Amino acid sequence: MTSFNRTTLPDNVRTNGATPNPWWANAVVYQIYPRSFQDTNGDGFGDLKGITSRLDYLADLGVDVLWLSPVYKSPQDDNGYDISDYQDIDPLFGTLDDMDELLAEAHQRGIKIVMDLVVNHTSDEHAWFEASKDKNDPHADWYWWRPARPGFEPGTPGAEPNQWGSYFGGSAWEYDPKRGEYYFHQFSKKQPDLNWENPAVRRAVYDMMNWWLDRGVDGFRMDVITLISKQVDSAGRLPGEPGSEIADGPVGEEGYSNPSPFCADGPRQDEFLAEMRREVFAGRDGFLTVGEAPGINAQRNEHITDPANGELDMLFLFEHVDCDCEGIKWKPLPLHLPTLKRIMAGYQAAVAKAGWASLFDGNHDQPRVVSRWGDDSTEENRVRSAKALALMLHMHRGTPYVYQGEELGMTDAHFTRLDQYRDLESLNAFRQRVEEAKVQDADSMMAGLAARSRDNARTPMQWDASKYAGFTAPDAATEPWISVNENCAAINAAAEFDDPESVYAFYKQLIALRHENPVVSAGDWRLIDADDEHVYAFVRTLGDERLLTVVNLSGRTVDLPAESAALLESAVGGAIVTADAIVIATDDADHAAASLAKRELAAWEGAVVRL
């Protein structure tokens, strides 16, 4: 097992309800998007050796776990989330020997490695899928194959088994001439859904997971794991299929119905996750399981992450990152802070007695949070808002996830042309919405892509001010697979590493605070000033210790809201707040104390005060 250079929480401090407390209860996870992290061979793509070369940087930051987006063998249709061989490394990233070296070097530094697990679907180039095209093969029922609708010519419009649309645009059914049937894919047509109803599929997945754990991996982040159980009728038919007892949903503006109500958190979800826990993790120590959980609400999160139910350690919920759009991500709206606070409060309340929360506002599928909810229009506002958003998130109860470059305050790509994008979802959405369904005009869609495209988070990591930002050599023969953000000369790790006022230095403080202070990782959480539109405020309590967090998430000076001001008044008895009462602040302690003495917060200012 990996030995950490931090204290673990004593068992008299309750975390998720387990005894003893899990090792990850005061840990911080750092997500790496390998193709954009560090290129060592000049081919324009990041690789495993590049990650290994940057481990000292990550150890200095203080993170405990690295989550790697997929590095398995893949045709790279969806940047590795379409896997053709679960037990090999794609040559784009290196070799199995490179993976073993990364594991060994990370473990020597007290850092665990969690791999992305993509088992709702495979690549259509996986050997399982190729075999399933033969109806007489043992793999014939490993995917969701269905015949054409009666009375329709197979492969022609309208012959699809039902009207479901793919989340990546177009129909969720693809016709295969070899088998003479359609297969179901919630995402790209090169990502056919596995049929988890088949016990042989589950057995193969569990065997693969055990193989990786035996090799030294410390757990899995499970991609869209809450989509593996589909709703079927008594005869095994999907909703909307001919003769199905379950009616399909309505057809939307793009011409398709939505599979999500029938595929998210399906009837056998708990059964499958509990079986996975028994078959893969029983008898093992030191692992971490976190599931990406579309369709899961806060109350279901409590059940799935309650250790008494033996499913997963934690989940990623998405209501908070879906609240700032007009029904669809490509029509963004300004953040309404009371709505965000209500959602986050619901997450926290659901796991107050058992279970655990994941804390994130950025990842490889989300735009950069400093551009989304902060202000990257000036350097000062970028730094201030990046710190404010970090303080807000990290002072919640749960496990924080830092996405690569977030600790530097990296911004959105600010692309202006369609040919600058690489993301399959973005390109398909433009074609589907603008060119085919004609439900959004090109200018509006380009604005939507600029604000919400996944490529915003996928530009290369900004290590220094050189050409290509240190991601690859300045004289590399091949340019990076996606353009480096033009602001890399001003925003990069080399410039921030030794700067005590940098975003990077602030993240180090936040991570250290979670390691050292049990009230931050495990104390009770209570929202105050819920309706204030500028200040996010809450109280953390553990025993006799109470911490007040107040963060101004706006670009102007604001008065401290009523409940926060009253708590301060009660704590200091009308006296001035002193710097020694400040636990951490986005500005220095003296500045924070001066602001709070006036019962106000400057633009993008935040502080944690000991009451």
Automatic annotation (TrEMBL):
User: Which branch of life, at top level?
Assistant: Bacteria
Which Enzyme Commission numbers does its entry carry?
3.2.1.10
- Provide the Glycosyl hydrolase family 13 catalytic domain boundaries: 31-458
Keywords (alphabetical) are: Glycosidase, Hydrolase
Question: Which GO molecular function entries does the Swiss-Prot or TrEMBL record give?
Answer: alpha-amylase activity; oligo-1,6-glucosidase activity
Using the record for this protein, list the coiled-coil segments as residue ranges, or answer none.
none
InterPro entries per UniProt:
GH (IPR017853), GH13_cat_dom (IPR006047), Glyco_hydro_b (IPR013780), O16G_dom_2 (IPR045857)
The biological processes this protein is annotated with in GO are: oligosaccharide catabolic process
User: Is GTP-binding one of the keywords?
Assistant: no
EC class: hydrolase
Keyword RNA-binding included in the entry's annotation? no
NCBIfam families xref list: PRK10933.1
| Protein family (similarity comment) | Belongs to the glycosyl hydrolase 13 family.
Per its record, how is this protein called by name?
Answer: Alpha-amylase
Give the organism the record lists: Bifidobacterium biavatii DSM 23969
